[in-house]
Specification:
single chain, alpha/beta, 2-enoyl-CoA Hydratase, Chain A, domain 1, 7-stranded mixed beta sheet, 4-stranded mixed beta sheet
């Protein structure tokens, strides 16, 4: 396959910006729908961005529900999903909403759908993956103190320290202090969270993934409910077996998943459909890499992009007894270049002359500035901060 990234970089060099890439994403979704005769929903997160809102969270469920609840005339839905994981409770709400409102729910994976993302994908009637797609071990992410950690890793550490104490009769002072802070309630919560993830997988595999499984492929035996449960429990146990996968972030590809008993539809066997999916993945990556967007919710006819809005501490420049203009020095989060901007709060042409002579540019009409490195910075947070602090609206020419 030709380099899609290079193709889109050429478009950037020819003037494409965030609006063109957003339109391209919606165009690709429409193309997918027409080719596959379904309705595609794209849910993608900027996994590499260190932003608190990147993982799956309850607000994501509300947005997904809001965008899809009016689609009463649609029977089949495909969800393109890319996420590092997150809230198991949010995953459960998303799955129950999708299966309640659509007869057939399929998931499309071309990037990473880890942890709670894997749990969601396993609820699909179908799982479609490209060669680059990956799921991960199932687990719950727990907030312990100031950190979010793997429930499995936490339980494994506690068990390791218990054995160490039995063998040596004591723990080193640091470990002893750490263990002393663990309460029975906290330990129980971690254990229950881990079991909760496995229980969801078993329930959903039986109810949805194995719904139409009637005959075994090799021996042509009738598939009973007991057989479905045993297969589901085996898959859940394998995916929860961190001693096998060695890492919570391990990427499990198509072959890995098929070996533990999951049937995966290989998108690369359908070159036209695969190219559309690879393009969707590439366009999302470019949007994440060149803008402050960190999460995408999109259908053919609607979109919501969540952005990490930079909130600075702009220097207020008073004129006379009131604030007429605000001076902003906004640093590009990608390359570090500082952009000098002024925001007028009164209609005074002299402000434009004075600040432009100093090398400042007026506050942009669309609230965005494009850095020389190609990164687009959203100034909505700065705008809200200025207008809240001053009680005035920014005037744009």
């Amino acid at each position: 396959m030709k380099s899609l990234m290079n193709e889109y970089i050429d478009k950037i060099n020819n003037g494409w910006g965030s609006l063109e890439f957003e339109a391209e994403l919606l165009r690709l979704i429409g193309e997918y729908n027409r080719l596959k005769k379904t309705y595609l929903f794209v849910y993608a997160s900027a996994i590499s961005k260190p932003i608190p809102g990147v993982p799956l969270e309850q607000d994501d469920f509300y947005i997904i529900r809001d965008l899809l609840s009016s689609k009463k005339n649609i029977d089949k839905i495909d969800m393109y999903i890319e996420t590092p994981g997150g809230s198991g409770e949010a995953a459960e709400e998303i799955v129950r909403f999708l299966h309640k409102n659509f007869d057939k729910v399929s998931f499309v994976v071309s990037g990473e759908a880890k942890s709670a993302g894997t749990i969601i994908v396993l609820s699909g009637n179908e799982i479609l993956m490209t060669e680059t797609g990956s799921l991960g071990p199932i687990d719950a992410q727990m907030r312990i103190g100031r950190s979010v950690i793997s429930a499995y890793d936490y339980m494994e550490w506690v068990e390791e320290k218990r054995k160490e104490a039995e063998e040596n009769g004591k723990l080193n002072p640091f470990d002893a202090i750490m263990v002393a802070q663990i309460t029975p309630g906290e330990l129980g919560s971690v254990y229950n969270a881990l079991e909760y993830a496995k229980d969801l997988v078993v329930e959903w595999l039986i109810k949805y993934k194995f719904k139409d499984w009637k005959i075994t492929e090799t021996r042509k035996l009738t598939v009973t409910q007991d057989l479905k449960r045993k297969r589901a429990e085996k898959i859940a146990s394998e995916l929860a077996n961190h001693s096998k996968w060695r890492s919570h972030g391990r990427s499990l590809k198509i072959d890995d998943l098929q070996q533990i008993g999951l049937r995966i539809i290989k998108l690369d066997d359908d070159p036209k459909l695969a190219e559309i999916v690879y393009r969707i993945q590439t366009v999302c990556r470019i949007i994440f890499d060149t803008t402050t967007t960190f999460k995408v919710f999109a259908t053919e006819d609607s979109k919501i992009f969540r952005q990490a809005v930079p909130v600075g501490a702009p220097m207020v420049v008073p004129q006379k007894s009131s604030v007429d203009v605000v001076q902003i020095e906004q640093k590009c989060p990608k390359c570090g270049e500082v952009h000098k901007i002024y925001a007028k709060l009164v209609s005074n042409p002299k402000i434009d002359t004075d600040f432009q002579n100093k090398g400042f540019v007026p506050f942009p009409k669309d609230g965005k500035i494009k850095c020389n490195c190609g990164f687009e910075i959203d100034l909505l947070g700065v705008k809200n901060q200025i207008e809240t602090q001053t009680g005035k609206k920014i005037i744009v020419n």
